[in-house]
Amino acid sequence: MDTASEVAKRAERADVRSRWLLSAPALLVIFFAAVGPLFVMLAYSFMVKGDYGDVKPGEFSLDGWFSVFFQRDIFDDTVGLADAHLSIFWRSVKLSLITTMLALAFGFPTAYFIATRPARTREVWVFLITIPFWTNLLIRTFAMQEVIRNEGILNTLMMWLGLIDQPIQLMYTDAAILFGMVYVYLPLMVLPLYASMEKLDFNLVEAGYDLYATRLRVLWRIIIPLVRPGVIAGSILVFIPSLGAYVIPRVLGGGKNMMLGNLIELQFGAGRNWPLGAAISITLMAIVMLALLVYVRNEARSGAQNV
Amino acid sequence: MPDQPGRNAIEVRDVSKIFGSGDARFAALDRVSVAIRENEFFTLLGPSGCGKTTLLRLIAGFDFPSEGEIFLYGEDIAPLPPYRRPVNTVFQSYALFPHMTVAQNIGFGLEMLGKPKNEIKARVELMLKLVRMEALANRRTSQISGGQQQRVALARALAPQPKVLLLDEPLSALDYKLRKEMQIELKRLQNETGITFIFVTHDQEEALTMSDRIAVMSAGKILQIGSPRDIYDRPAERFVADFIGESNFLPATMVSKQDDHATVRLTSGAEISASLPQNASPAGDVTVVVRPEHAQFAAAANGAPLAGTIENVVYLGTDTHFHLKLDTGEPFIVRRQNARGHADHREAGSRVGILIPADAAQVLRD
Q1: A83-306 is classed in which CATH architecture?
Q2: Which residues does the UniProt record annotate as the domain ABC transmembrane type-1 (chain A) (predicted)?
Q3: Is the separation of the CB atoms in B58 and B14 below 8 Å?
């Protein structure tokens, strides 16, 4: 005869077992797709590079990490900062920050416009915003090239309108990269912004006007503080892929204007220095995490001020 | 009674508000005119969709009239944006800023007006005291109850000392007991601040309790304006009589008129005296309204102006309702107060006679 407590214990054990079984697929995906490869990268970054790419397994070395930040002079063997790498780091962070700000500047009014439409039209606008996702990024980037090259649509149009005498060189400049990144990542800003604006109680906006706040002050004191979660989410979603962008700087920036993504690709490709590529990748992740940390701490502080 | 525009806090002249276009055109307000006096507690009463909130929004400046003018102390404010009107609103949903404290909410209007910090602080403290919320000044608005949010919304709207305070069904979200308390509280605040209140509600009891004057609205028009007593005792139209309180409607024929009184003949053949509505001269077949509590039972059914059979007796605690069917076929309700000692013990099925005292009957305009 089973006592009630034995039955209960058995049921509990079965419960634990089925819980593990049910979560197993998710855990496997997380391990093999997310955590596992990260550890592979981390391990590669501490190995010796192979002569034709790859790594020499089992041999430990700090060379990969060393050459992320420093370089040895070929002639006198003195150690200096790796200016080429550091300038690419700085360029990447700078271009990503500018991209984020531009995307916010264009995305905010767009999201506000959509959120203030009648419910049925809103869905149409959101749908239109997502259409670019249907096309491959590479193809969209080449299309962008068609727009901004010297004989492209933009220059031809401006010359026809008499705004300029000769084409403006946009291709292979930072401006071209910014242009491309803002275009590609704008939806990632608009969608979270829209999601938080849609929840905004527009009675609060009217209450602001009623209490003598002008349009600008209503925007600054009421709308922006209330849609802040959307601003943060959108900024993170734009900043992170911008920092690691590969196709856009490659196609629109040419070979000279590299960003981190191109530098990493170079190490795994022509550079045949996998440990360095792995070390740069992890550094990139560290920058992202640092940026997030700064953001979160800032948020916590300004949040505390409001209480 | 033509008012001088300068004397009125708000004067609305021939205002229409059309929404939509083409076939979907819809007049939310149809040539409405009303003058609201200084220091008045004025109520716009009507069912949902009657245009009362639209009128309030036009006065606040959230919408602009399609036609007509709105004067604030003689100045045409119709073209001004809401932040240039010395008028504040208490919203139905309160619309308190969730990212600010109670005190910051109350101070917001003064801050936007550019008042000095110490003045804002003093005024916020005064307002907190006025609505008895001193203890909760630094709470977030999400951390206080519905009734407290209501008080904060009031304090926030009163803080900039508006010339007119607009209240858009502010009590509808509160439970019955709290609503009763707030009705008295609102009346007290209005007395203490001396500010003109324009109050929108669909609740006739609320309107009767608090208002100096009531405008009854239906389908974009104002049907009748008057004191609660006027509106209740002398409804000019069937809609007003029906919407406010319970009414008995009796078909009748005009017999004679003298000044504001008339003699009408009911279908039972009895002739009674009835009041006439203002600005109208009904003739021929008319409708007479009698409030259930104004009718009285006669000593005997024979010889009474109206006679019928009691079909239902409904006990309501303070009152008893007797639902009758008159000999002429119309339904009729008599309400008697359940006073101790002389309660009317009348059973369903018994035949009764009904007396209609002088002044208890009112002839309707339409």
Answers
A1: Orthogonal Bundle (1.10)
A2: 89-295
A3: no
